[in-house]
């Protein structure tokens, strides 16, 4: 059953003592994210399963796996792209409907028909869509 990201954030913030990881995906199921929160810190990892165009950053010379699909940041750190196999599983994530903005951990994310944009407490973040990925 689809849920609004705002509802997820409210429910999870109220019960953080019981759960420190939660997940959400865009309605297309093409972008999936996991938020982890520990005492005083949080991290966000998002995967874009199918993408086109050039990756947001050039592939590192030592990357022998999938590149341009995995984005990671902490609540106060810069965005990093990870060199690792893409998980194609599209099950088990709560839905972040288009037009919804959610705040959780040290992040704010907005889901729209154009894509998913997430920022951390210090303004670092990313925009992800099938056609374009951008880090700021």
Tell me what the structure shows.
Pfam families: DUF6636 (PF20341). With 136 residues, the protein is mainly β. It is 7% helix and 40% strand. The chain is built from one helix and eleven strands, in the order αβββββββββββ. The strands form two sheets. The chain has a six-stranded mixed β-sheet with strand order 5-4-3-2-1-6, with helices on one face. The chain has a five-stranded antiparallel β-sheet with strand order 7-8-9-10-11. It is globular and about 35 Å long. The termini are far apart. The relative contact order is 0.25.
Record the SSE blueprint.
Layout: H1 5-14, E1 21-25, E2 31-38, E3 41-48, E4 70-74, E5 80-82, E6 94-95, E7 100-104, E8 107-112, E9 115-120, E10 125-128, E11 133-135
Parallel strand pairs: 1-6
Antiparallel strand pairs: 1-2, 2-3, 3-4, 4-5, 7-8, 8-9, 9-10, 10-11
Pfam family, one: DUF6636
Protein name: CVNH domain-containing protein
Keywords: Signal
